[in-house]
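Sanity check

After download, print the first record. It should look like this:
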Amino acid sequence: MRLLIQRVSEALVTINNRKKSSIKKGLLLLVGIEESDTKEDIDFMCKKTIYLRIFDDENGVMNKSILETDGEILVVSQFTLLASTKKGNRPSYIRAAKPDVSIPLYRQFCITLSEMLGKPVQTGEFGADMQVQLINDGPVTIWIDSKMRE
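Expected structure tokens:
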């Protein structure tokens, strides 16, 4: 599982020119799921996200987590995070999980994240053509791969 985490002052997802979800201060998570992902990957990524200290404290130092700032989370599925560009100019998505695997894992990721956050997370719509708008705060952008834990 891969996550691209962006600290945002606001983010919005629209589908067919209609607002699907939006948040104010918090995190926009772009999530890529691969065939080999398990509940263990979900738990690891949710804990990492919830406790990641990327919000400023009173001294302007990134020392607070999303839990300590009462921020919001918007989760958007994005299989292109698993693109391989080793050969040629057309990315390969062979590592990306098919919908029968990725949809249940994506849903479980959102449920687990919501439980750990203590409030609902906002989401995009799996498989939809979405437009994502955001104001990256910092900018702060962090990439995490659950297969690279050590």
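If your output differs, re-run the checksum step. Summary of this record's structure: DSSP finds three helices and eight strands in the chain.
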